[in-house]
Fold this protein.
Amino acid sequence: MPKYRVLGCSDNGISECVSAIRNGGVIVFPTDTIYGIGCDPYSDSAVERIFKIKGRDEKKPLPVLAYSLQDAERIVSLGRAGKIFAGKYWPGALTIVAPLIDKKISRRVTASINSLAVRVPANSCTLSLLKQCKYLVGTSANLSGGKSSNSAQGVMRSGLDGFDILLDGGSVGGVESTIVDMTGAQPRILREGAIKSSEVLRLIAQV
């Protein structure tokens, strides 16, 4: 039997997740795209747990979810183009890779590089968490190389285990976020997801 607890997206469920995160815990939670697994990005030991739970290569950096554009700007330098993209798509399914500002974030999160992938999700349950935590590691809740889940039941069936709480927020979009790299001279699409590349390219042409 799994050792994690399953909670709903109630005030009590959110409070218990916040408490777990602040105490170095790892939780699985819904976003607007897929279910994510996360922890306090400043906790080196909690981040290490996520790599072990997923069986993920520690050379691969992890994304971070932020509560707001203003919070995101405290940890990365979005620049002019990044702010335009964030203004159009946040909260939403766009992840922006930008130069890292906050050096206190665990180096395991960034895989010791000087950039960070950041997103503000459009999910009320996740935003309730982030309102209190500000930041949360937010990578897909699946074993490395496995299929991502769009429901709590999908996570339960996936074989993922070793985390502390599964926050059940019902079914979500099911398509991962689109990733745009803002660290170079021109924005560059790293992954097409919920937002089509053609739409992103039109905005790139404008900036």
Notes: The longest strand covers residues 94-99. The mean pLDDT is 96. The chain is about 35% helix and 20% strand.
